[in-house]
Amino acid sequence: MTSAQVPRISGRVIGISIAAALGGFLFGYDTSVINGAVDALSADFALGAGLQGFAVSIALLGCALGAWFAGSLANRFGRVPVMLVAAILFFISAIGSGFAFGVGDLMAWRAVGGLGVGAASVIAPAYIAEVSPARVRGRLGSLQQLAIVSGIFAALLTNAILVATSGGAAETFWFGIETWRWMFMVEAIPAVVYGAMSLRLPESPRYLVRKGDVDRASQVLYDFSGEPDVNLKIQQIRDSLHDETKESLRDLAGRAFGLKPIVWVGILLSVFQQFVGINVIFYYSTTLWRSVGFSEDSALLTSVISSITNIVVTIVAILLVDKVGRKALLVAGSILMTIALGTMAVAFSFAQLVTADDGSVSASLEAPWSIIALVAANLFVVGFGATWGPIVWVLLGEMFPNRFRASALAVAAAAQWLANFAISTTFPWLSGISLTLAYGVYAAFSALSLVFVVFKVRETKGRELESMEG
Predict the structure, then answer these.
(1) Residue 227 in contact with residue 133, Cβ under 8 Å?
(2) Is pLDDT of 277 > 70?
(3) Which domain, by its residues, includes 46?
(4) 189-217 confidence digits (pLDDT tens)
């Protein structure tokens, strides 16, 4: 490959990777849009703490289900058709949630959106890994997390603008519809864009080789991946598939509690990514900062600032992942997150309980601990966003062998969503007991993640997908 070819080919593979990662944008938007709406819809539907937590996290059960089936569907029909289905599910969920007439159907529509999120969480990293050259696979794989945090930012910014314009999430807005409903319906716009862009994507060359369409696979490898020796790469892919004609969950079976060790590594990476409590910040940050003295619009603005910080540090991760490596970044992230979460646990030990007129109890944090908690929360976002956020998705997309990548990724992603559900559902209950307890638990899991990475995670920087072993 000549130097003149590299920019053209790099540009095309970057373009299709960005298009595929747009599913991550909707992933972030769909899971975070509830942040600004949760208080208003809770008041509208008279939800207690337990039902509020379930209404927030019900989408995550849909995510787990969508992730579980996405792998088998992608193996049967291809990566691109699953992206199209995900886009349709996002659109349906946005409109349905906006017009929900009760908490029951709101949760149903949120679960539909969760199916799309789960599918996107499996397909995007697998697709990007399978079309990317090894030398830049980490950077391109990190686009998934950049898209996720951009979606989170877009949701929070949209929520903040709608609240600032209408006067509050519970206030009526355009056409006499409450503002919190518009927060959900805006998602229909990027859902349509994602569907349109997916129609223009080439299919994964690894999938095409599995299906015997070598000519199309060769064309994708040459035109998009910039592969200098297409015939050699096709043969390497064939060898890595072990002449199996159909991938299934049975391929994951092993002696380590029923699964291959590499699958358990993927599952535990996913679980630790969620058990550090990152989505407490994304889902409940507006409620959290209101409890420490911020007004509704100030709390939303603070959440937007945190999401901007997340975007910036994710870009830093993209620049470092193929230079520093995956493992070193995870180790650094675990250390930083443990310090930040431990600081938050200490800060909230000085919180005072306040009883509202309706009898509900919340925590109130005075200066200087309110400032310390705010700084620690953003330090936590920095530690996660520069390391565990993007790197786990990079590893899940590339660490499994070709012969069962999609299936293993589906299992790991499903575990991630179930872990997310567990954390999101239990936070209102834990915080009701003590925010110190909640953040102390997350700090403990962050410390455990450090031990896990040091002893169990292998470096994959610069390795070809065909060299990954089960």
Answers:
(1) yes
(2) yes
(3) 5-467
(4) 999 999 999 988 888 888 888 888 888 88
